[in-house]
Automatic annotation (TrEMBL):
Residues 818-1070 form the P-type ATPase C-terminal domain. It comes from Callithrix jacchus. It comes from the Eukaryota. Mg(2+) binds at residues 381, 383, 792, 796. GO terms for molecular function: ATP binding; ATP hydrolysis activity; magnesium ion binding; phosphatidylethanolamine flippase activity; phosphatidylserine flippase activity; phosphatidylserine floppase activity. This is Phospholipid-transporting ATPase. NCBIfam families: ATPase-Plipid, ATPase_P-type. The gene is ATP11A.
């Protein structure tokens, strides 16, 4: 839907607004001009109608296959075209299937039944037939079929409740209000008699732009707690907000894929150079007349007169076709299959399943699996990602007096507190009034809804009376505050007929008329309500962040409350301030007019509303502040510690205030006790210039940069000075803003230098767009590091889409982050296994796959190149057509596919225990040029061994036992046989993790080759126009020298690689190889991904090689098993436990008992 969406979003030549005639009724004559406008129907189209979607590399690879159909080819078109046809078919089937699923989903959506009102009656039609201006009736639990203006509902107050989970991920109920003029229309006849026009903007992607959020019901939202509503369609089909917000994710490409394409270009150059060399040498060789026209092959007259350049070009293309197999066409299909099938290992991982929520990990794209093994920077949100987003009301401070209620969490009272704890002395009489006003403010200033309970009539009973209220809100903070004040004696009951009811301490019901709601937004960082009491007093209650409330306060005990707020923030609590002002009727009238003018404005509505709110929310009286705790997620600190040991830098990006965020960073071990904090905040920039602050910080960190490098930093040594940087959103804006002389780059580079020298960075007071800016800044810095962003809310989507890898946490802030991410996990702690285990394995596997494919294709085609020197550059093929076709498709494809799915070079538990192993694969280590050149040279060496080995072996022994001489097909078959065995056994030597599947596929592939060759050469196939391979393979195997050649050449080919591995492991071992040598990855340690184990991480573990903790890790496994079974909670046995002191029955994890069991 790309281009359609862009047009719908309002191009310059469009009319700014649209006029909609409700029920398609034209205005009475003379009232106004009737402007008929054409709008799209309600059909949704998300499918992509493409025949073939091939990537650029695949298109390049098609060239040789296409050429072979045009020119006189040395190989048949079938031979050259079949592998390419296979690639194209697989890709087309995959994309066609995905498009069919999209068509199917579109049809199901477009054929949903919808209730229209026509001539005063309900008519049922398909959703796609809906038009702009139609009046629709929607019943409870139904989804709105298009964007509607809310006309009326069955409720007397003209409200309805809506959930927008499919739009913004919020599962909470939101209240919408009908248009005042039409809320009294309750029947089909009333609605049908309505004559009205609606003037609104053209479709905009902004979810809340036209007419304000309270009147607009968006497609995809669901009606809740309301029997039925009537609405008029204003935007339909691809012009609905939901369709305009279909975010086409930019195509993310992994570092491995980029390396593959670069290597492919190198091999394309090799292919062209081979063809050129052979073409030139052919004409050099044919310069002698007796070679160009031997007596047995004279040219015709037309051949002699043919243009020399045309002949040379044709020969060049023929050589291109002959050598085109060096381009690994099938590699792209194998990589696609490996990524797709490999992604299931994440979704099947039981360790990453969260029993509390019943959620497991999700893979939204499998294209970035290997990128999980290359991450250098992690950008994480705080609330809901590092913390639980499970708010607990801790205390409130009113005029300097602190109140601590019952400890309450998610509607359940915890048994460790009772009654109201008055920390300070009791307030005076006037203080008592302020106290009650504060509690009333918390009961009234919110958007909380009370879940309907059909069994209760009239006002709610006191919570202690048996019927407790169940609160629903889009913000967990609000629910925590309303529940907390409930424990302090004031209970919010309900909103009915625009009246809010609360139960005070004396069990009396108080009713307040709700006049206006000034909704919360992230720029103002506050919300307000205007209410009218039963006595006729009008109040404005305002609550919000301290930074947005204190500047608007003219009265109240600001200093005492500010001190308490700062103390709570340092302790990691989330704080809100509450203020109020009393309004006289004349003031309220002015406010109403101001708000109404802003709400109906078609141009600049947001700015006008913001200006109106700014004028209204001023001259407030400060009442007090609240503190809510958001607890740290389980194992968040362990996860961050492990990621830092792995060499990954962790940044926290949050909208919270600095003190709260810093306290959380200390709690999750991002900052340590010896971390020296550097501040780059607005407060400091006000005291000094930005230039001075940056240079001062730069001098501080760069003084120690010699001793603090990326590889030596572990976060555990007390000798090294450890720096942590704190920056806020305003300071970041100054750094990113271009200077007057146009040189913004200087500040950015200086800022990046400081960040690189810090072990951790905290960015607070960040807007969603600034989070994405930070990610982009690091992503495009000179090192081009691989970035990962993780968050759980809609405000994290921008950074998730910006980072190389985006991970959504399936949290309480909805599923928008999870839907827009590449991967989704239930908890932050699962990131550890996802990167250190799954990411590590994915990268190891796919890098071997890529290098191996290039290697085996060099082995395959270089003998063909050498053969041209012995056949007069006549483009004669060395191998039979069947071998050319099936080499990459059948003989060598399955072993590498299975290797790339199953390989575990070290055990899962070893990778979890020793995060430093992650550094061995950093910076695309296994696909660097040095490694690529080694594999290519190894392929060239093996190819020369195959060719010249067979050549010299048969030079004097080309006679079989019956005196028959071997021909060129026997020679080619021998070379091919040695090659198939060598490349397959090379993979077997590289395999560390053997299963029955590996054995079956590797030895099965060799067996299949032998059986195929026996059948191919043992039967006269009637469909072939040649029988050149008849009896060739069998005859070759009947010769003793052939057997000797196969064994000897395979051994010689594999020998250099074996020697290289032995020498490198002895002289320059990597950390991974040391682990393998020390015997850490024993068979009982190697747990398959099909049967994942619980984490065996030890908090005190610091050794580089996990073998050092052999005796410790075993008892820990047992202890965990005991804890899981809830038998006991004993501490793990001492590290010195020997197998003599524990019996095998009580300690099955002890090494001694393992030996016993193995025996």
């Amino acid at each position: 839907p790309g281009c359609g969406v862009v047009r719908c979003a309002g191009e310059e030549n469009w009319v700014d607004s649209r006029t909609i005639y409700v029920g398609h009724r034209e205005p009475p004559p003379g009232a106004e001009a009737y402007i008929p406008q054409r709008y799209p129907d309600n059909r949704i189209v998300s499918s992509k109608v493409t025949v073939l979607g091939l990537s650029v590399p695949e298109s390049l690879e098609q060239l040789p296959g296409v050429v072979s159909l045009i020119i006189d080819t040395p190989t048949s078109p079938v031979t050259s075209g079949l592998p390419l046809f296979f690639v194209i078919t697989v890709t087309a089937i995959k994309q066609g299937y995905e498009d069919w699923l999209r068509h199917k989903a579109d049809n199901a959506m477009n054929q949903c039944p919808v209730h229209f009102i026509q001539h005063g009656k309900l008519v049922r039609k398909q959703s796609r037939k809906l038009r702009v201006g139609d009046i629709v009736m929607v019943k409870e639990d139904e989804t709105f079929p298009c964007d509607l203006i809310f006309l009326s509902s069955n409720r007397g107050d003209g409200t309805c409740h809506v959930t927008t989970a499919s739009l913004d991920g919020e599962s909470s109920h939101k209240t919408h209000y009908a248009v005042q003029d039409t809320k009294g229309f309750h029947t089909e006849e009333d609605i049908d008699g309505l004559h009205a026009t609606i003037e609104c903007e053209q479709p905009q992607p902004d979810l809340y732009k036209p007419l304000g959020s309270e009147n607009l019901l968006l497609r995809g939202a669901t009606l809740k707690n309301t029997e039925k509503i009537f609405g008029v369609a204003i935007y339909t089909g691809m012009e609905t907000k939901m369709a305009l917000n279909y975010q086409s994710k930019s195509q993310k490409r992994s570092a491995v894929e980029k390396s593959m394409n670069v290597f492919l270009i190198v091999y394309l150059c090799i292919l062209i150079s081979k063809a050129l060399i052979n073409t030139v040498l052919k004409y050099v060789w044919q310069s002698e007349p007796f070679r160009d026209e031997p007596w047995y092959n004279q040219k015709t007259e037309s051949e002699r007169q043919r243009n020399l350049f045309l002949k040379a070009f044709t020969d060049f293309l023929a050589f291109m076709v002959l050598f085109n197999y060096i381009i690994p066409v099938s590699m792209y299909v194998t990589v696609e299959m490996q990524k797709f099938l490999g992604s299931y290992f994440i979704t099947w991982d039981e360790d990453m399943f969260d029993e509390d929520t019943g959620e497991g990990p999700l893979v939204n794209t499998s294209d970035l699996n290997e990128e999980l093994g290359q991450v250098e920077y992690i950008f994480t949100d705080k609330t809901g990602t590092l913390t639980e987003n499970n708010m607990e009301f801790k205390e409130c401070c009113i005029e300097g007096h602190v109140y601590v209620p019952h400890v309450i969490c998610n509607g359940q009272v915890l048994p460790d507190a009772s009654g109201i704890d008055m920390i300070d002395s009791s307030p005076s009489v006037s203080g008592r009034e302020r106290e009650e006003l504060f509690f009333r403010a918390l009961c009234l200033c919110h958007t909380v809804q009370v879940k309907d309970d059909d069994n209760v009539d009239g006002p709610r009973k006191s919570p202690d009376g048996g019927k407790s209220c169940v609160y629903i809100s889009s913000s967990p903070d609000e629910v925590a505050l309303v529940e907390g004040v409930q424990r302090l004696g004031f209970t919010y009951l309900r909103l009915k007929d625009n009246y809010m009811e609360i139960l005070n301490r004396d069990n009396d019901v108080e009713r307040f008329e709700l006049l206006e709601i000034l909704s919360f937004d992230s720029v103002r960082r506050r919300m307000s309500v205007i209410v009218k009491s039963a006595e006729g007093d009008i109040y404005l209650f305002c609550k919000g962040a301290d930074s947005s409330i204190f500047p608007r306060v003219i009265e109240g005990k600001v200093d005492q409350i500010r001190a308490r707020v700062e103390r709570n923030a340092v302790e990691g609590l989330r704080t809100l301030c509450v203020a109020y002002k009393r309004l006289i009727p004349e003031e309220y009238e002015g406010i109403c007019q101001l708000l109404q003018a802003a709400k109906v404005a078609l141009q600049d509505r947001e700015r006008k509303l913001a200006d109106a709110y700014e004028q209204i929310e001023k001259d407030l009286i400060l009442l007090g502040a609240t503190a809510v705790e958001d607890r740290l997620q389980e194992k968040a600190a362990d996860t961050i510690e492990a990621l830092q040991k792995a060499g990954i830098k962790v940044w926290v990006l949050t909208g919270d205030k600095m003190e709260t965020a810093a306290a959380t960073c200390y709690a999750c071990k991002l900052f340590r006790r010896n971390t020296q904090l550097l501040e780059l905040t607005t407060k400091r920039i006000e005291e000094q210039s930005l230039h001075d602050v940056l240079f001062e910080l730069s001098k501080t960190v760069l003084r120690h940069s010699g001793s603090l490098t990326r590889d030596t930093f572990s976060g555990l040594s007390a000798d090294l000075q450890d720096y942590g940087l704190i920056i806020d959103g305003a300071a970041l804006s100054l750094i990113m803003k271009p200077r007057q002389d146009g040189s913004s780059g200087n500040y950015r580079e200086l800022f990046l230098e400081i960040c690189r020298s810090c072990s951790a960075v905290l960015c607070c007071r960040m807007a969603p767009l600034q989070k994405a800016q930070i990610v982009k800044l690091i992503k495009f810095s000179k090192e081009h590091p691989i970035t990962l962003a993780i968050g759980d809310g809609a405000n994290d989507v921008s950074m998730i889409l910006e980072a190389h890898v985006g991970i959504g946490v399936i949290g309480k802030e909805g599923r928008q982050a999870a839907r827009n991410s590449d991967y989704a996990i239930p908890k932050f702690k699962h990131l550890k296994k996802m990167l250190l285990v799954h990411g590590h394995f994915y990268y190891i596997r796919i890098s071997e796959l890529v290098q191996y494919f290039f290697y085996k294709n060099v082995c395959f085609i270089f003998p063909q190149f050498l053969y041209q020197f012995f056949c007069g550059f006549s483009q004669q093929t060395l191998y039979d057509t069947a071998y050319l076709t099936l080499y990459n498709i059948s003989f060598t494809s399955l072993p590498i596919l299975l290797y790339s799915l199953m390989e575990q070079h070290v055990g899962i538990d070893v990778l979890k225990r020793d995060p430093t192993l992650y550094r061995d694969i950093a910076k695309n280590a296994l696909l660097r040029w040095r490694v690529f050149i080694y594999w290519t040279l190894l392929g060239l060496f093996d190819a020369m061994v195959f060719f010249f080995g067979a050549y010299f072996m048969f030079e004097n022994t080309t006679v079989t036992s019956n005196g028959q001489i071997f021909g060129n097909w026997t020679f080619g078959t021998l070379v091919f046989t040695v090659m198939v065995f060598t490349v397959t056994l090379k993979l077997a030597l590289d395999t560390h993790y053997w299963t029955w599947i590996n054995h079956f596929v590797i030895w099965g592939s060799l067996l299949f080759y032998v059986i195929f060759s026996l059948l191919w050469g043992g039967v006269i196939w009637p469909f072939l126009n040649y029988q050149r391979m008849y009896y060739v393979f069998i005859q070759m195997l009947s010769s003793g020298p052939a057997w000797l050649a196969i064994v000897l050449l395979v051994t010689v080919s594999l020998l250099p690689d074996v020697l290289k591995k032995v020498l490198c492991r002895q002289l320059w071992p990597t950390a991974t190889e040391r682990v393998q040598q020390n015997g850490c990855a024993q068979p009982w340690d190697r747990d398959s991904e099909f049967t994942p184990l619980a984490s065996l991480q030890s908090p005190g573990y610091q050794s580089t090689c996990p073998s050092a903790t052999w005796s410790r890790s075993r008892p820990q496994q047992v202890t965990l098993a005991v804890w899981k079974g809830k038998v006991s909670a004993e501490p793990p046995p001492a590290p010195g436990c020997s197998h003599h002191s524990c019996s095998s029955s009580s300690m099955p994890g002890c090494p001694g008992s393992l030996v016993g069991m193995l025996v």
